[in-house]
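[INFO] parsing input record for Glutathione S-transferase
[DEBUG] input buffer:
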Amino acid sequence: MGIKIIYFPFKGRAEPVRLALTIAGIDFEDTRVTGEEFAKMKADGVLPFGQFPIIEVDGKPLAQSVAQLIYAGRLAGLIPSDTWEEAKVMEFQMGIEDIVTAMIPALMEKDEAKKMEMKKELADVTFPKWFGYMEKLAGDGGYAVGSKLTIADLSLYNLMSWLKDGIVGIPKDMFDHGKHTKLNKVFATVDGHEKVKAWNAAVNEPKKQTPH
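[DEBUG] output buffer:
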């Protein structure tokens, strides 16, 4: 089985899939393309929804990042077999998707003054509310759900990493004020995983994301 992940040259929505496959020791081709290459792929009609990320499995495309993560998560054993626990993982996962969706308009805004206003709204209102929800949902033992690593942990880790790396106009220390103890435990669990540490050292540390 050949798996190729095609995305831009940063973490973004593809990173949880990369981490899931890395943790499971499943080989994949990590293809990172330019904006020009993306535009050509879009114009050529090879992207099912006209957007990234896209993964190919034996040459067959799969779009939508959550669908991709579910696929990779099942391959990697990162989705519970218990129906209720699986539903709780997806509950947490979709909460993260709601946060990311709320961020996109501010990141895409072209007017710099309006962009900073929108980011202030995120920092002052949206993030405290939504990360408060996630803190209540998260387990006490360093995992989002249950007592084992799941795709929800990887998605939370990716989002928190993005914010900790720094986005202009949003405080980098938003998780450092004692209000997100359980979320920080989840972050530490994933960040301390030997395969994640090796991946970060080889791939992410040499090229930190540029803040938006």
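[INFO] The beta strands are 3-7, 29-32, 54-57, 60-62.
[INFO] shutting down worker
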